[in-house]
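User: Predict the structure for this protein chain, please.
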Amino acid sequence: MTTALGKYVGTAVAMAGSGLGLIAVWTGSALAPAGWGTAQLGLLALVVFLAGCALALLSWHFQRQRGQANRYLEVLARLTPQDLFSDSPAVVLPELPPKHPQAAAIARVKEALSAHLRRIQELEHARAALEVRCRRAVAQAEQIKAIFSYLAEPILAVDDYNELLLANRSAEELFGFDSAKVEDRALARVVQCQPLVDLLAGTASRKTPGSRTEELEITDAQGRRRWYRATAVKLAAGEGAEHRCGCASQGAVVVLRDIADHKAFQKRNAEFVSAVSHEMKTPLAGIKAYVELLADGEAEDRATQEEFLQLISGQADRLQRLVENLLNIARIEAGVVNVNKQPRSLNEILEEALRLVRPSAEAKNIQLVAELSPMYLAVLADRDMLLQAALNLLSNAVKYTPEGGKVILRSQTDGEHVRFEVQDTGVGLSQEDCQRVFEKFYRVKKDRDMAPGTGLGLPLAKHIVEDVHGGTITVESKLGEGSTFAVILPRAGQSL
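Assistant: Here is the predicted structure, written as structure tokens:
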């Protein structure tokens, strides 16, 4: 609007000047003062005409400069940051004369616009970087959420009001709830385990960061009781969720580690120590008693002294066998036993075992029957250790077979394996006994009076067969009918 108004004013001034000149020429003396001649009037008209022309020229010059400035500003307004800072822009600014009256102001506008565009460009770069970081943070959060959800250990987190913040899938399955559907998030209502609630509440209320660990017996959603080691850690400010007021929350997180196997191992160790103590106490008590009798002179004659000494020797031998069996089992379990495996004939080892056990079988009038395969059964075995396992099985069969019974030792091929069995017509085992007969120091209660023993012979045979030779040992039995112990070993060409 200002440009159009200036254009109209300049045109009007030029027309007015031209009009005055023409009027002065044509009217002459009518407009001149009295006494002016024609020359004076002509000169006046020329001056007025020239003034009008000068005004018109000046107006045109101003209009041209204004047009240049307008075109420059219009193009400048269309520029993008790429056009402004590129060496080969798509839009080129028009030329502006250096002496243009608005050149300095336009230059300042261009500098200000350039600064703003540069700032905008920097902000665009920063925004793009933030978007990348946000996408990366979202991806990491999703990964952490997935990992947290599928961790095997149950994990719970509470705020400083002891309300549930987070729970992974394992914790939900353990306590039987769905954290997405829980309305009352008080931990005492969600988790039915008061010691765990107290542990988290105590940890969250602590003034200083730290952790607490307790062993808890927890009943799961199915009613099963299991032992867990609960480690609770206080959350520092800003690590928890936000309260309703918007302030950063503090709280605690607990990780539950299943230690049922550890507890069972502790129980087995306690039972093992108790059984070892009991087994050692019996021969030691016998040795001590007979030594005291000898020291007190109770055995005056030579025959009684020899009897007492034989009893002491027998108890010492029993104690020695117990210690040797324990050491053998411990070495095998620890993997430090010296194993010398070579290709052997299984039948030769079994025949040697039969020869060694035959005297005790004949003493009870038990018939020993060998049904060994006529084929050569090759095994990669430690001869002494495999002989010990076969001896333990045969001795066990003879011990728990009544007089006049039968014990059968047979061998045969079984595909890529070889197999030998010890079958007896003894007292037999119940289903519970079959499951526990290979446990250390386990002895069937009803059969303890039939023969002395430590309860280590069958466990030692199992370790030799399975841990040393990579085979398997099983038992099938019926009460009152007898038992069959079967050993399956890899053939020499199939051994690992």
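The CA atoms of residues 209 and 234 lie 6 Å apart.
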